[in-house]
């Protein structure tokens, strides 16, 4: 066994030589289609097995695609043919003599009433399919995210973590490209993380985790790509899914997803209205140094109440021109209005944990508006059923985020005094156009080429103003005010070659991206234009040891372009003692990544693991610096007898360091001891090494960290199920900071009612109130400890009603441990 595994890498290296070896008898092709006899709908992931009567050891097979079609290569002989699909009776055709390629036609499966009661657990837990260049998680009925958002869904997927501010990381790398239906979208919003919190989990069908992206995808995102696929019903006639939920803290949302399909037209729409509130808390202990001795101590606490009113409306139509082509027109409008009401209290102490000398408060009341609309058109043409196809997409999007922060700074101890009133206005708008063409041409049954073009033209304008109010007179601070226009025009072309040789599959690609970046600072009349052309090779290989065991190897070159916020040199204040400032000289970071994956399916469990390596040059690093400026936080400068407390002002911003190395391994194990219980464990461990020097400070640092997730699903029968998710995250270390470990538990219970047309569920997120992020920061002039909690535990009840829909979309359960692990097709 060990020798066989050791030889796998050698076999991958001998790919082409292996493909030239003499073959046996000529291969034939068995085709057909599998449908649900009751609804005439295609059954995806049905299993087809061919057993040779004369050679019992020769068993071949495959699974159906989204249209219910299958295609299996075989040899002449006498066969027994079985077609299986969970909760359906098995279709058998024995003693079939195959002398030439054969079309079995349409096979209609009947529901097996005896099995139907036993399959309720199917779909309650996220399923996974393994492809040559990605993993696909079918979200299904993961009950711990009901009533939640896209951020909650992503947080439930192995390899993905979502931090306190909603930032998404893949295998510990937070430079992840997030797409909606394969394209950048206004659904994410300009700011990104908050947009993920506003999109309801009920709108998601599946998430593609792409750690080794092929040349078809944008090269942006050094950590990889997350492609969120939204639901689009395909059932004939009128049907819908209606969802309403409410909870504590105050949360309400109603979502309706409906569609109406005829032979020539499919209309679909998703509509959401809701309101949510959350409370975040934080604290910070700071020591400031003058030389080797600490000369001042500050203790800060922060509390923010957030309110959001949400509205989302989408409408789409797919027109079937004929049996081989269609045109889809789709649009949406999203509006989110909210208020952030917070206060930061700063106590000056005579020592950490000591007596209070003075107290200052910074109160901030910030109304905000976040809205976007998008319209897109898609034309698809299939020239035949062998994969020869072309598609063309055009998409236009506008987004806007407006924030008006009214800030009051005052001293409350030992006396009361208003220090200043200020207003910070941020008006941000984005216009983005996308044009894309993809063409696939099969050279033969096992070979294809793919060509494509994508143009993305993005303009973001940020109008940032700081004004101080004194004696009812408003004065703009021109040193803190600027209008920044950021333009990013990227033209890309790619070519791919795919080949399957017996047990081997390969996908080779090359992508070219021409980037034209403009940074226009309107207030200061500073103008910067950066233009560069990059080439991005990709390689994806797989070797199928047998039908239960596979190995993959992938390489991809990626890029990370700095965005407008990273480039804007004008400060964004967090408090009177610190601010964020962008760097207009920031250059793109380039990453080469390798990924070696392994899959083994046993009778009751599935093991899926990988090891990976990433090397980044011109890596982004956030640094904290003493600006040399000071601020008075206590005392009256006009009173000669007043004791003044003066602390330095700190700046945080991005720089390019020389390089970054990241390597690690992950394992995912799914165990299904019986039809009632399903257990899943995921573990990821990685090392992150930063190398570089900035302003005389050596930033060399090496950190080993890890994350893990455990999920249990239990089906009690009669439509009642229970699911728990437990996660842990290890400490993280940079040159200036160390984040402490954290963990959390979420639980949910689910009950089907109204003859499976309705479902009631109740979930608790962060049961033990443990999801608090804690960080120590060290520099030459100050040390600090911070603790932050984005939201408190939430309690949400959800009711779902299905109109002309079945509870289970009967997907095949993996025969070797419960995972829906598909083949390694292109």
Describe this structure in words.
The protein has 826 residues and is mostly beta strands. The chain has two domains: 113 residues, Immunoglobulin-like; 559 residues, Beta Barrel (Maltoporin, Chain A), CATH 2.40.170.20. Helix content is 4%, strand content 65%. The chain has six helices and 45 strands. The strands form six sheets. It has a 22-stranded antiparallel barrel. Strands 8-9-13-14-12 form a five-stranded mixed sheet, with no helix packed on it. The chain has a four-stranded antiparallel sheet with strand order 3-2-5-6, with no helix packed on it. The longest helix has 12 residues. It is elongated and about 105 Å long. The N terminus and C terminus are likely disordered.
Key features of this structure:
single chain, 826 residues, mainly beta, Immunoglobulin-like, Maltoporin, Chain A, 2 domains, 22-stranded antiparallel barrel, 5-stranded mixed sheet, 6 helices, 45 strands, 4% helix, disordered N terminus, disordered C terminus
Brief summary:
The chain has 826 residues and is mostly beta strands. It has six helices and 45 strands. The strands form six sheets. It has a 22-stranded antiparallel β-barrel.
